[in-house]
Amino acid sequence: MRIILLSIALLAFIATGFGAGDPVHSPGEKKTASAEDGAREVEKRAPGRGEEFPICLTAANMSIATGQPSLVLMSSGSVHIPVWSLSGFTAGQSVAGLVTGLPNRCAAVKIEIVVTTTDAATSPLLEDVYRVHLSQMVEDAAFTARYFQGPPVRTALPAAPFYSRTIVLESYYPVAPNAPLWVSVQREPADPANTFKSPTGLAMVKVTPLDALAEPKVVQNVSGYNSWPMIQAIGEKLVCVYSRGTSHTIGNAGRDVYARTSVDDGKTWTPETVVANTAGYGNVAVGKGLDSTGAMLVWVRRMRGSECIHDLYRTTDGARFALVTTPKLAVIPMQITDIFAVPTVGLMALWFAGNYGDDGPSHSWGTLTSKDNGTTWVQTAIESGLTKAQWPTEPAAVYLGNGRILAIGRSEVGSTSSARSQFQMVSSDSGATWTRAQTNISDVFLSTPSLILDTETGLLSNYYYQRGPGCGVLRRRVVDPASVFDHPLNWPASEAVATGSQLTIDAGNANATAIRNTHYVAFYSGEAPNTAILVSVFPAPAAGKK
User: Fold this and answer.
1) H/E stretch holding 530
2) How far apart are CA 331 and CA 365, in angstroms?
3) Residue 516 vs residues 110, 456, 542, 543: alpha-carbon distances, Å
4) How many angstroms separate the CA atoms of 286 and 126, rounded?
């Protein structure tokens, strides 16, 4: 493997002392695939497998891209390591390098950086922020054609100087094999999350080739805009509810809600049945769950102009749906989301209301609770008068036990700063009071979260679809919920589990369910006016994975 050096005289001088001109990559063997989980068929390999050994760019393999970062020797005793010093105050400093010879089977790469600091002020209470810029130099196309600006990634500093950190800046960037890959790393001192104002040293960039991910299965791909799926297991049966219209619009008459079921892990699906087709309204499924008898409940929002109504349907077989109630609510939600059970409370769902505008503090969210299996509901507003930037939307929640609830909400902020990170809302008193904070989950853009808590391992999986050019990736973050309940910035790096369309609004809206040790995640993907409902199938994360 050969690294092309973008060198200047100083780089060339230092490179001779550290072997930077030598080959730095030896292809490794492909890791073994995950075995099938008993009789239940799952994908041939688990997410995150199929990695090669990383290709490493040392500091001497990189040169200035923007600003005036400095190449220095970081020294401690007789140890001297070349690093790029990146300011904690001056914005716009970045360094770049070029990698060639990606393996033929390489479908994507993971980008990590190794950073350190000599400053005694370092502390886990402080954070720094970085992002990666990527582009491939493909024949017969501008080098900007495959340009991707990664999201800002925030991490805590170590407790003492000279400790190194390996930070994942991008876990899955699709690439064309055999095309040169340009990698630029930039510190973001102007980001509000960057509270460490001293310089840091970039010692290395690691580029790891990845295999292609398993193809999702098709639930529905007939002509039309099939979108916004909800998937739920009723025993051993999968039920996928979705809507179809003519475009990415929620209020157009003729958008109706349908369902299909599968008993073979999503390989085949029953004929489509109608859930809701109220004439003159745009009908969309917005939430699902189970009642205390194990029957499936589905929230369907129907809109006509500014009129917004929510109907609750119930089914025991995924084919026949009966209207349960149309609650009269003091605050009209934009959506009522997935239903879950809370002991002593009954059924609970979260809602959010607002107009998605930037016209002032007019947004809110809260809870709906039912003690009679969904026949009647009590609405509670948790926060009102929120700005758009403060507003958690399309939340998913799980009950953790002992009165604790953890919810994740999407951010509607389109900025590339870390302010667009997913929200985390937690309650320790069964939903009576809540605390909201933003997480370090920033590889998102209008990314709807869906949570699965595995009772056997206690691990929590957060699934979401990162939309947009250079993305189109279904991601998962797996964590012990105790480690993030009071520490929303402690979420581990994401792993890619599936890919779809990179057209921003024509793909996304992940929704997940589980049958024993298997996870099923539905999303939609395509190009308007035709999109498809897909489902990806994965083994649940193994115990010890965090």
Assistant:
1) strand 530-539
2) 9
3) 30, 9, 13, 14
4) 39
SS3 211: coil
Dist CA 475 CA 478 (whole Å): 10
Cis peptide leading into residue 392 (ω within 30°):
no
Our CA angle for 257, 259, 263, nearest 5°, is 165
Evaluate if pTM is beyond 0.85.
Answer: yes
Closest CA to 501 of 528, 464, 461: 528
Strands 200-210 and 55-58: antiparallel
Query: pLDDT of 27-45, one tens digit each?
Result: 333 333 333 333 333 333 3
Q: pLDDT for 436-466, tens place per residue? A: 999 999 999 899 999 999 999 999 999 999 9
Q: Nearest 10 degrees: CA dihedral of 520, 522, 526, 530?
A: 130
Residue 420 contacts residue 443 (beta carbons within 8 Å): no
Tell me the C-alpha distance between 70 and 14, whole Å.
Answer: 13
Q: Can you list the residues of the chain whose pLDDT is less than 70? A: 1-51, 415-417, 545-546
SS3 at position 155: strand
DSSP assignments along 303-342, one per residue? EETTEEEEEEEEESSSS--EEEE----SS--SEEEEEEEE
d(CA 238, CA 264): 9
Length of the chain: 546
- How many angstroms separate the CA atoms of 507 and 391, rounded? 22
**Within 13 A of 418's CA, how many CA atoms are on the CB side?**
25
- Residue 88, token pair as written in the block: 């904690």
Q: Residues 127-154: pLDDT tens digits?
A: 999 999 999 988 888 878 888 999 999 9
Collect all residues with Cβ–Cβ distance below 8 Å to 362 and sequence separation of at least 6. Answer: 354, 355, 385, 386
Cβ distance 370 to 342 under 8 Å?
A: no
**Closest among 11, 507, 521, 493 to 217, alpha carbons compared:** 521
487: how many CB neighbours lie within 10 A of its CB? Answer: 14
Phi then psi for 11, rounded to 5 degrees? -60, -45
Contact 136, 146 (CB under 8 A): yes
- pLDDT for the residue 48: 45
At residue 253, the pLDDT reads 87
- Which H/E stretch holds residue 14? helix 9-18
